[in-house]
């Protein structure tokens, strides 16, 4: 059960100091996928490059864990390869809240109701800059509100909720320090295991 980590926008280290920090806390083989820098003017090229590279990387049963703009990339590759993916986790997704995912593909959206980056900037950027390198969708506030369409295989959890043992704040709060990484890495592991158990049960 491989996990591919996909970093976000305006990242120059390949995600090492953001979603890549989850690697030691996730079970199984973990790949930190670096598609290069995605800035305001290089975004379309970077996203198209990422999609091309992922087409050759993904194997049946792989899980994607995507942060910010990485969620937009994850959505597009799921449109193409959702029939072989194990599932997708989106963290503070820069993705529209009315996003429709590949039917039947398990989606775990860890959104955050304190994330002003996706609440305001992602929505504004999605309206002003249509050419994001990804088809039929765009940036939005799904990482703030959650995905608000009725989809049976989509789960939304607000990581800012105060009933969590380790609640998060902001756009990259999950990657702040060891307590956050350990707790939420464990949450992702538990979700993935649940998906695997359900899949095994359905096909038994």
Q: Kindly estimate the percentage of residues that lie in beta strands according to DSSP.
A: 5-15%
Q: Outline the biggest β-sheet.
A: 6 strands, parallel
The CATH superfamily label reads Alpha/Beta hydrolase fold, catalytic domain
Discrete helix count: 5
How would you classify the quaternary structure? single chain
**Shape from CA axes?**
globular
What integer is the average pLDDT? 90
**CATH topology, what is it called?**
Rossmann fold
* Overall SS class: alpha/beta
Listing every helix as H and every strand as E from the N terminus to the C terminus, the arrangement reads: EEHEHEEHHEH
Assign a percent range to the helix content.
25-40%
Report the strand count: 6
Strand order of the largest sheet: 2-1-3-4-5-6
State the domain count: 1
Rg, Å, rounded: 15 Å
Residue stretches low in confidence (pLDDT < 50, at least 5 long) are none
Q: What CATH architecture would you give?
A: 3-Layer(aba) Sandwich
Q: What is the CATH C level class, in words?
A: Alpha Beta
Distance between the termini: 18 Å
Structural summary, described in words:
The protein has 204 residues and is α/β, with parallel strands linked by helices. The protein has one domain: Rossmann fold, CATH 3.40.50. It has helices spanning 43-57, 69-81, 116-128, 142-145, 178-202; strands at residues 3-6, 30-33, 63-67, 87-91, 107-111, 154-158. It has a six-stranded parallel sheet with strand order 2-1-3-4-5-6, sandwiched between helices. Helix 2 links the parallel strand 3 and strand 4 (87-91). It is globular. It starts with a strand and ends with a helix.
């Amino acid at each position: 059960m491989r996990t591919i980590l996909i970093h976000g926008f305006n990242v120059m280290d390949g995600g090492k100091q953001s979603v890549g920090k989850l690697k030691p806390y996730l079970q199984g083989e973990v790949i930190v996928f670096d598609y290069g820098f995605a800035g305001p003017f290089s975004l379309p090229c970077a996203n198209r490059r990422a999609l091309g590279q992922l087409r050759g990387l993904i194997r049946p049963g792989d899980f994607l864990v995507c942060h910010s703009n990485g969620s937009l990339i994850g959505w597009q590759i799921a449109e193409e390869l959702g029939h072989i993916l194990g599932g997708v986790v989106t963290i503070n997704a820069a993705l529209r809240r009315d996003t429709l995912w590949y039917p039947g593909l398990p989606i775990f959206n860890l959104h955050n109701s304190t994330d002003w980056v996706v609440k305001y900037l992602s929505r504004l950027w999605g309206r002003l800059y249509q050419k994001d390198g990804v088809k039929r969708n765009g940036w939005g506030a799904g990482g703030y509100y959650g995905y608000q369409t009725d989809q049976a295989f989509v789960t939304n959890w607000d990581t800012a909720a105060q009933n969590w043992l380790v609640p998060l704040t902001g756009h990259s709060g999950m990657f702040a320090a060891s307590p956050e990484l350990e707790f939420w890495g464990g949450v992702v592991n538990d979700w993935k295991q649940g998906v695997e158990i359900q899949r095994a049960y359905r096909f038994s």
